[in-house]
Amino acid sequence: MNKMKCTGLGLALTLTVPGMASAEDIRIGIAASLTGAYAPYAEVEGARCMADTLNKAGQGPKVDILVEDTRSEPQLSVSIAQKFLDQGAQVVTGIPFPDSLIPIAQVAAETGATVFSAPNTQVEMQIAGFENFIAGAVPDPVNGAATAEAAYAAGARSVVLFKSADAGSWSDMLPEWFGESFEHLGGTVAGRLSHSIGTSDWSPQIAQIRAMQPQPDAVMISSVLPDVGILIRQLRASGFDGLVIGSDGFDDPSLEGTVADPSALDKVIFATHGPTGTGSSIDTFLADCKARGFKVQGIFDALGADMVLETHAAAVRAGSVDPVAIRAALRAEGGNPGVTAEVISYAENGGSPVKTVPVIGFKDGKRVVLQDSIPAFVPNWR
Amino acid sequence: MEYLIQQLLNALAFGAEYALIALGLAVVFSIMGLVNFAHGEVIAGAAYAVLLFAGLGFGAPLLVIGLAIAAAIIMSVALERVAFRPVRNAPVTTGLLTAFGVSIVLQNLFQLLVSPRPQAFPALNGLNVTWHLGPWAISSLQVMELAAALLAMLALSAFLGRSLLGIAMRAASRDFSTVRLMGIKANRVVAAAFVISGALAGIACVFILARRGGVTPDMGFSLVLKAFVACVIGGFGSLFGAAAGGMLLGFIEVGLLVLLPQEMGGLKDALTYVIVTMILIYRPEGLFGTRRDLGDKEF
Q1: CA atoms within 13 A on the CB side of B106
Q2: Can you say how many angstroms the Cα of residue A270 is from the centroid of all Cα atoms in its chain?
Q3: What would the pLDDT profile of A236-263 be if each residue is shown by its tens digit?
Q4: How close is the nearest chain A Cα to the Cα of B112, in Å?
Q5: How far is the CA of B228 from the CAs of A187, B167, B207, in angstroms?
Q6: How many angstroms separate the CA of residue B108 from the nearest CA in chain A?
Q7: pLDDT tens for each residue of A268-324
Q8: Does B273 touch chain A (CB under 8 A)?
Q9: Which domains does chain A have, with CATH numbers?
Q10: Do A211 and B128 touch (CB under 8 A)?
């Protein structure tokens, strides 16, 4: 009987006290897309690696990462985030789209917790204006403006925009923000073409470009791999020799392998959240994580690591693990240290970071940083 | 005019891809009444298998093609044995749900055991060469895929019309019980359908890999949904209908992509289904399907 009581007590403790977290720890709850459509953009492994690094260093509060799979379902992500909040998480995150993040921000407001979406770039969350929301990446219009500067500097004067409604404003409006910035610099948008995410044959669009007179200097698209890799190959095979301009969707280690021919990458440029594949400090971080057994893949893991590092630094700065105090320190003047940038500041914009935007190009098939600055002109998206 | 002919060639290539996958679905449906939504994961599974073999040093293009077809056949037959045979006598909806379940399980396994991110696979890129014939640019892959779809259609017709197993399969599609009473083993007929379906998935996998140059967990899923639509347009159960439906869907998609003004580009999928619905209102059983007697459900 006593044994049964002990077992019951143990079971109850296991259910009510998850892990060995204490009230002095930082708990970051990641309702993560480990499976489903958004799984390629999960930031979990980078966050785990950074937490492990900080916990081993032993400075400041311990970081406890809570992870559950959302199966890429927004409704499930809200339930999981609520569970993390009930467990005392000071920071939670969900699927990086408004249908997940808006309800999470609403429930998190009740506990004072911050919703920190590391890979979120879409402007809808910034426009919604939640006081407790922070995005880890610069908004899409800033990304588009940075590539416009680099494309114009590379000599492009006319561009065709590829647009798709499939991934919301990221695939539909980002090209338009690029176009607006490009025209502000003196360039011309020569045309707009439709596509779908998941396209594996671009022949109809390429035939449309070939029929244009005069031929455009560049095409711009915000889409994912392998789609954009196929587009580059097919454009080059058709004889198109202009710039292929992209967004952070190009920033995947599989880009070079998918395109295969290094010369086909010579006139490819894209803006991203931090230079990877260029021997940067991000590459060093990712390589170290991999060596320690974390299954990191690329830039989204670095953004996840940003979230953990910034939150930890903010807690140290605030001298408290109170969620509201952490958020105030996250937004304090001077910013906090990150992995994708030395300092990441929210003091200016509140919900989105002020960071330089690296634009990546290629030389002999290898990635090179073409520019890494804050664009001078950004379309008014608010 | 040159532009129109170019887009016509593109539409043929789109249609050939859908037709090849639709044939794989139709073969199994005609025998078992099963809409095998896991057909896309057979394609993806074959792609991951050749990725693995290429990592082990077996990356020569001809070897990759053979391995892709073999892997798809093995996976297709294995799925029949493990997942579909136990529900063979269950209602059609059970089979449908099982196929969806298998599809999701396999996609999740690819994501968790390999990676959710794309894996580059350039070994077959050499198959995709652009030929410039006068004003037209034709991809070698487009020609090969069209030829493969036609050959598959002809080979299937010959097999089903002339071989004993093929005749047994056709008979089974009409009345499985009678075929069994005549001494033909049901498992053999069903397994043959899955072998053919797997081989078609393997051939489709080769073309998809050559075009994409990469492997993703969901690489077959959306194509199978389109192939399903192609089968419905053509008439489920009709092999010729599946191929014709695939070609028609290719023409509808490319036509809308080219003709719709850019600002209406988001309506492409919606309009595709409006056209499909209109076809089905005109021919509810599909263009080449046989009309079923609905008894008191008739208007």
Answers
A1: 29
A2: 14
A3: 988 899 999 999 999 988 899 999 889 9
A4: 7
A5: 44, 25, 19
A6: 6
A7: 999 999 998 888 999 999 999 999 999 998 899 999 999 999 999 999 999 999 999
A8: no
A9: 21-138+280-344 (3.40.50.2300), 140-272+357-373 (3.40.50.2300)
A10: no
